[in-house]
Amino acid sequence: MKKILHITVALLFIGMVSCDYLDVVPNDTPTLDHAFSNRAVAERFLRTCYSNLPDITDPFYYPGWFTSCHELTLIDGRAQRSVAAQIAYGRQNTNSPYLNYFSGGNGGTNLYVAIRDCNIFLNNIHIPRDITEEERTRWIAEVKFLKAYYHYFLMTLYGPIPIADEEVPLSASPEELQVYREPVDVVVDYIVDLLDEAIADLPPVLPDPQMELGRPDQVIALAVKAKTLAWAASPLFNGNSDYKNWVDNRGLQLISDTYDPAKWERAAAAIKEAIDAAHEAGKQLYTFNKFTGGPQTFNMNDSLVQLMTIRKAITEDIDRNTGVIWASQDVFASGKGNSGNHSGGLGFSRLGDLQWSLFPYMYPEDQPSYVNYNGASWHMAELYYSNNGIPIDEDKDYNYSGRYNVRRSTPGDNHKFYIATGETTAELFFNREPRFYAGLCFDRGFVELSTSATTGSGGASFTPFMRWRSGEVYSTGEYCPKKIIAFETSCSQGDANKRYTAHLYHFPIIRLADLYLLYAEALNEVKEQPDDEVHYWIDQVRENVGLNGVVESWENASIIPDKPLNKVGMREIIRKERLIELSFEAQHFFDMRRWKIADQYWSLPRTTWTTDKKEPEEFYVPRVVGPFRTVSFRDYLFPIPFSTMRINPNLVQTYGWQ
Question: What global pTM score does this model have?
Fold first, then answer.
């Protein structure tokens, strides 16, 4: 009978080092046969396979949030001492890497342990006899999906990685344990093949969504496959000359420096397959129904309903959110799993902390110890489009050069539902697209919350607005990401006896809008010039958020009216659209890296308004309060620990790291 083994090594990669490091359990410890002796214990092992999924809602240990400080910024000392902050400040290293998902440590989980658990499960799930073959087949498919996803996540961080396809036997020699990082193209093919195996035996949709939240179906697996192939086709991995000399001791080049257009064709086909499966499963871009949102939403006007469509595309209860393909949630949750009866678990355990750290400081009675110690970067306000649906520096009608001037919001203008009437604020905050007002809290801007908003005939005029100048409520000189703060969240409401209470929801990992924009991106790369098909998929997203199509918008208002009609211009438009649509969803970190444009954003210095001033003309003056960060090609991929390379000389360091 096989013994359960615990391998205590630096890499912990199933046994990637000599057997001297193996810690074999005593003879009276349960064996693997016992761990799979019946359905109940086998299901517990299945849960173990799920347990290492990276938690997208963890604000400091998921790499997509604070590691760049372009999208979100670290305000107070607690945040600035975090693991993510060390990467954002350019302190990543090879001695003890931060967010080490390769071998574990400094906030990172060893995902090769997770893969090892998957391999053990697959090698032993034949043992239990009190399980139907249908269920066994589905469990095998789920674990194959998890195994593929763990490899995918590692690939997005490290590029070429070792492939852990088999459980390494105890009899393996030290030489057999010294594995190699495989070329990215080999890793991609492996992930895709494994996902295809899983897809064949996964259900098209979850048979019981309320009881099975968190388990994969075919749509989820197809979406991960689509994103895997999009990574393979993108500039970081497709013809990247920065890695031309990155070879291992076998002489294999780990990332090709030769561009292959066929990779985009393959990606486009996979993305379309995922979209078709999502549509067949009933997925569609989310739109808010004010009649199902409670009494606070019944009287909302069209402007506020549009803002709620944008915010609740993220925060709506998963039962009603048709635009979410895969979200963070409890695996095998009992009951509905909404905020009213959920006690924690994957995705929920950290979501309260995430909202807590980003919630705007609205009243003097709010306590800065539990709200707004992080925020949205000052630079995010310039990312969003004008109300004409184009970049503010391209809009011929937008006062771009005077955007830091001040302006008074007058009664009857079209900003009365976004900016407090009679208040003076920055010109930058006027004439912006709906996603700007749904996405950001800013000085003199409204924050719509069900517990504090009064939605009478005046709509948002009864909603509290931000007062962040010197001597007022509070000021960081930056912003808060309203988009991911649930409408149902409560704050002090000016009462010192009331507490901030987060409303928990299932945070999206993949949304349908993500796939639409990814498909537009792939089609634009495949075709000689963008056509109606390319425009169609991005326009679906734009229409859903209240904007006209790209061709119409650029023709009517842009100083570059033909930009959507050429490949390079359309590429820039699609990338900008993704950055806006997926803002504050932990996607910027991944997209900017696969496009090789992170240096354009991560090197921007931390900037704020002049927080020690009260008069608008003095407050709305940008000031640099943080250093520039130098970003080079090495920052696009994480290093592996030097100690791991000492154990296994076949592992070459990530190129550029010493």
Answer: 0.92
